[in-house]
Each structure stands twice: as structure tokens, then as C-alpha cells.
Amino acid sequence: MTSTDIATTSLLDRFLSTDRDRTLLVQRVALGAIMFPHGAQKLLGWFGGFGFSGTMGFFTETMHLPAPIALLVIVAESLGAIGLVLGAGTRLAALGIAAVMVGAIFTTHLQFGFFMNWFGAQQGEGIELHLLALALALPLSVRGGGLLSVDGALAGWLRAGAGAGAGIVARPQPQPR
């Protein structure tokens, strides 16, 4: 086992590791469930959305976002939301959604103030939903997916040595006597 293998293992372990916290479970499922309809609008055209082509066109032609950023927004809100519900790639998915929320605040919603447009009195939506999503996403980015997450199961599997045959996890080597 080389030092590169150990460093990779350590990085992978840090990416997947989490504790069995029920609060993180509730946070990630709530955030994933809230974000999925938005992602499905952008990716699939569900719930009155424009679908992938329409959303890419809007983001790149109307908002003047670079195409790779537009694509990342769609992926974060759709596949990232599914990842959160499953607890798979939780840190990356939560970080992606946090980045999308920060971007949405500064490119679109900050000008409309704090409150959502509940009664149609404003010309757009404020930032309160985005701040709530950030409040859910940031702890998940730091602490992982919590109880019943694919990440936690994979981390346990790798720590138990199941990944040692693939060179993913360092197994203790017998010491010569």
C-alpha cells in the first residue's frame, strides 16, 4: 500500500463518513424533497417547468450564465436532490445546492427583499426560501448524511475492509517478527 493509496482512502473516508444522527437524516430528506420538484422542472419539464433545453436556453441566453454553470445548477437541483434523499454523495449534493442558493440570491432574488411573494404584491420572490435551504445544506456539507445514508453504509463497509481487495482501503499488514 502506497502513501497515495492511504491518502485516497483518507479522503474517501472523510467524504463518506458521518454519524448516525437522526437530525441530519431529517435535514437531508427535507432538503432533497424540497429541491427535487425544482430540479424536475429544470431537467424533465415536470411541474410546469421548461425541461432541460428550455432551462439551458433561459439560463444561457436570458440570464447570460455560462453553459457549464447552467448545467451544474440543473444537476445540483435534480440529481443532487435524489442523492440527498438517499444519502448518497451527501456532502457534494448539499454543497451543490448551497452554491445554487447563493447564486440565486445574488443573481435574481436579493433585489426583491427577504419575503417570498405570497400575495403577488412584489415583482419577484425574496430570499427567505434560499436562506432556509442554506441552513439545511451547510450542516450536511460539513457533517454528512447521518442515519440511514448510503454514504454511512459505504464508509462502514470500507472501514471493515471490504474495499481492501480493490486497493481502496488499507488493511493492516502483518508485521514480520
Describe this structure in words.
The chain is mostly helical. The chain has one domain. The protein is built from seven helices and no strands. The chain has helices spanning 3-16, 22-44, 51-62, 67-86, 90-109, 128-143, 150-159. The protein starts with a helix and ends in an 18-residue tail after the last helix.
Brief description of this entry?
Helices cover 65% and strands 0% of the residues. By secondary structure, the chain is mainly α.
Distance linking N and C termini: 20 Å
Task: Please give the domain count.
Answer: 1
- State the major sheet: none
Tell me which oligomeric state these chains represent.
Answer: single chain
**Radius of gyration, whole Å:** 20 Å
Number of strands: 0
Specify the helix fraction band. Answer: 55-70%
Q: Spell out the helices and strands N to C.
A: HHHHHHH
The share of residues in extended strands comes to under 5%
Q: Which structural class is indicated by helix and strand composition?
A: mainly alpha
Shape: elongated
Mean pLDDT across every amino acid position: 89
Uncertain spans, ≥5 residues at pLDDT below 50? 164-173
Enumerate how many helices there are, as a single number.
7
Which keywords apply here?
mainly alpha; 7 helices
Layout of strands and helices, then pairs:
Elements: H1 3-16, H2 22-44, H3 51-62, H4 67-86, H5 90-109, H6 128-143, H7 150-159
